[in-house]
């Protein structure tokens, strides 16, 4: 029996597979995938040496842990295809907006389900994932999930009622960061920097600033004040951002994403 099976083999599934193989958490022979695109399965088999299954029921039968890595609107169909064997497996779902109870409505109220929200930096092993287990999951199930998703970044446990907020902040957040990075680089180009250099400096600046917060544990406002000398260039720029509603716009963007996540139909 394969240790872990992936229903869906898109970018996020590939990121997880790449991470667990790179960290030595599983061997390629311990991973099995199924995707509706046969060419994608061939590609993944060639790249990682993972096993492939002809359908969801076959994959579930051969797996101890099943990761649902399909779009939210396909979850119902996938669950129906392999309802009985899924009831005996640890089910990990990364489908945004799909609550645990919706999965258990098909697989049984006592089925072991863990809902996880990862984000796209997992593709470079810098992801942020938040998980919440169903009450039927024993501690070893949670440790299994944490082990898998810690291979692609950091993983934290939260209550399910917070998952839509997680989706809005760390799930959608990378897109907001990319927009800011692009804007920083455009500002550098406007000031005369070559575009390639401006983008490199912008990216490294955001990475360094994030590392300062995470590694020092100091509040971002305190670190901002350290850079903002009286009458200097930084406080001049900060004044412009404040006058244009930068912080309120960022807050509103996260809250809008949260409201959208709350409206998603499972």
End-to-end C-alpha gap: 30 Å
Helix share bin: 40-55%
Q: Which architecture of the largest domain would the CATH scheme give at its second level?
A: 3-Layer(aba) Sandwich
- E-strand count: 8
Tertiary shape: elongated
- Write out the strand line-up for the largest beta sheet, numbering strands in chain order: 3-2-1-4-5-6-7-8
Structural domain count: 2
CATH-defined topology of the largest domain: Rossmann fold
- Secondary structure tally, helices: 13
Average pLDDT taken over every residue: 94
SSE succession: EHEHEHEHHEHEEHEHHHHHH
Approximate strand percentage:
15-25%
CATH superfamily (homologous) name of the largest domain:
NAD(P)-binding Rossmann-like Domain
Rg result:
21 Å
CATH class of the largest domain: Alpha Beta
List the helices and strands and how they pair.
Layout: E1 2-7, H1 11-22, E2 31-34, H2 38-48, E3 51-52, H3 56-61, E4 63-68, H4 75-81, H5 83-86, E5 90-93, H6 100-107, E6 112-117, E7 127-133, H7 139-150, E8 153-157, H8 163-171, H9 173-190, H10 195-216, H11 220-227, H12 233-243, H13 246-263
Parallel strand pairs: 1-2, 1-4, 2-3, 4-5, 5-6, 7-8
Antiparallel strand pairs: 6-7
Structure summarized in a few sentences:
By secondary structure, the protein is an alpha/beta fold.
Protein described:
The chain has 266 residues and is an alpha/beta fold. It has 2 domains: 2-163, Rossmann fold (3-Layer(aba) Sandwich), CATH 3.40.50; 171-263, ProC C-terminal domain-like fold (Orthogonal Bundle). 55% of the residues lie in helices and 15% in strands. It contains 13 helices and 8 strands. It has helices at residues 11-22, 38-48, 56-61, 75-81, 83-86, 100-107, 139-150, 163-171, 173-190, 195-216, 220-227, 233-243, 246-263; strands at residues 2-7, 31-34, 51-52, 63-68, 90-93, 112-117, 127-133, 153-157. Helix 7 (139-150) links the parallel strand 7 (127-133) and strand 8. The radius of gyration is 21 Å and the shape is elongated.
């Amino acid at each position: 029996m394969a240790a872990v099976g992936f229903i869906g083999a898109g970018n996020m599934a590939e990121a997880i597979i790449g991470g667990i193989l790179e960290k030595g958490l599983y061997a390629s022979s311990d991973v099995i995938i199924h995707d509706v695109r046969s060419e994608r399965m061939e590609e993944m088999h060639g790249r990682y040496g993972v096993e492939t299954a002809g359908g969801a029921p076959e994959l579930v039968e051969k797996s101890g842990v099943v990761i649902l890595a399909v779009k939210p609107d396909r979850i119902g169909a996938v669950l129906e295809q392999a309802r009985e064997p899924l009831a005996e497996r640890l089910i990990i779902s990364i489908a945004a907006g799909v609550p645990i109870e919706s999965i258990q409505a098909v697989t049984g109220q006592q089925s072991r389900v863990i809902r996880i929200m990862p984000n796209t930096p997992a593709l470079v092993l810098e992801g942020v994932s938040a998980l919440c287990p169903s009450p039927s999951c024993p501690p070893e199930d949670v440790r299994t999930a944490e082990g898998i998703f810690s291979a692609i970044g950091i993983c934290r446990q939260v209550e399910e009622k917070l998952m839509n907020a997680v989706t809005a902040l760390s799930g959608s957040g990378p897109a907001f960061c990319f927009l800011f990075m692009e804007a920083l680089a455009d500002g550098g180009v406007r000031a005369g920097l070559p575009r390639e250099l401006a983008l490199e400096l912008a990216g490294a600046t955001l990475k360094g600033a994030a590392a300062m917060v995470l590694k020092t544990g100091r509040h971002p406002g305190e670190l901002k004040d350290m850079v903002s000398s009286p009458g200097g260039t930084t406080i001049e720029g900060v004044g412009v951002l404040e006058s244009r509603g930068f912080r309120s716009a960022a807050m509103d963007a996260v809250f809008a994403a949260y409201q959208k996540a709350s409206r998603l139909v499972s």
